[in-house]
Every structure is written in C-alpha cells, then in structure tokens.
C-alpha cells in the first residue's frame, strides 16, 4: 500500500543558500537540516574545508550527513559534482552580495569601500565555504570549472566597473583597472585562508580595515 504521507518538498534555491551561507556565518559540526541533499552539501563543505577535496572520501561525507555512501549517490553522481554545486552557489552568492552593495552605495568611493569590506567580511564569516569556493575549484572538471570561472569573471567585473566609475567621476585615480581589481579581490579572498573565529580580528573589524585599505589603494579622494 502506498504511503499517503506527503513528501517534504525540496528547499528553494534561496533556502539552500541560506543554509550554506547564513547571515553571520555557520559553525561546523552537526547539521540539523531536513533536506537530505542540503545536509550532504553541508557535510561535504565541512569535510572539504577540513581535509581538502582530494583527501575527502565519499564515506567521510556520508558519515557526517548520517547516511550510507550509497545514500550520497542518490543525490549526487560524484564527489566532484558535490564540489561543483557548493562552489557554484558560493560564487553566485558572493557575486550577488557585491552587486547589491555596489548598487546601494551613494558614490563610487563608498561602493568600493562597501564591496571590498563586505567581501572581506564574507570570507571571514564564511571562511570554510570561502576556502572551498576560492581554493578547491581547481579540482572541478573542465566543464564545471568553466562555469565557475564565468562567475569569477562576473565578480571581477563588479569591482572593475566601480573603479572605472570612480575614475570617470574623479574620485579615484587608477591607472590599471584590471590589475587593481585583482589586487583588491585577492586581498579580500585571502581572509578565508588565515581567519580564525574568536581571534583578535573580528569580521566587523576586517570589514572596516579592508574597506578603508581599498579606498587608499585606489587613491580615493572622497
């Protein structure tokens, strides 16, 4: 006899992003999420951040998610597909945050401060996801890597557009926009590599410091 109990609908993409990168960051460890696919992604994120992609096994991910290895393959064809789904969402979330910050700023100078400061804070609050997004994507298949690279180009483009707008308005003085955008983003991304929760540098302090550094690097006059 078929069960009459309705199945739980899958989470929306917004809800998945909220689970992977909630406001203020997500502690590692036990994952209390009803959606099995999301629980697997969270378990994989913790494992990849702790051990790196090559050293993480499907069995390790399954154990963290409370499943058998076969249970993982019901939702994801391979460990690489799991990495792709996490990386794609992480990049898309970071891009959308930068777009929003740039759009809401009153001037190119404030936009630069907001996007670099906010991007730096994001890599502190989400240092585990940030390490995966920024440092593990090289393990993706060529097809998946190409899709992620396009998202990375979008992120570069947000910063470059703000710099160009600042140059045109006279607020910023930048000779090489692409190189400056790369330097600013690299500075923010590196936060995920060294940040330790509970340390002397808080995400809020990092946001202020890195936002101000970005403006000074671009010779902001505003």
UniProtKB/TrEMBL annotation:
Name the record gives this protein: TetR family transcriptional regulator
Domain HTH tetR-type: 34-94
SUPFAM superfamilies: Homeodomain-like (SSF46689), Tetracyclin repressor-like, C-terminal domain (SSF48498)
Domain of life of the source: Bacteria
InterPro entries: DNA-bd_HTH_TetR-type_CS (IPR023772), Homeodomain-like_sf (IPR009057), HTH-type_TetR-like_transc_reg (IPR050109), HTH_TetR (IPR001647), KstR2_TetR_C (IPR041490), Tet_transcr_reg_TetR-rel_C_sf (IPR036271)
Record-annotated membrane-spanning stretches: none
Organism this protein belongs to: Phycicoccus sonneratiae
Matching Gene3D superfamilies: Tetracycline Repressor, domain 2
Entry keyword set: DNA-binding
DNA-binding region(s), residue ranges: 57-76
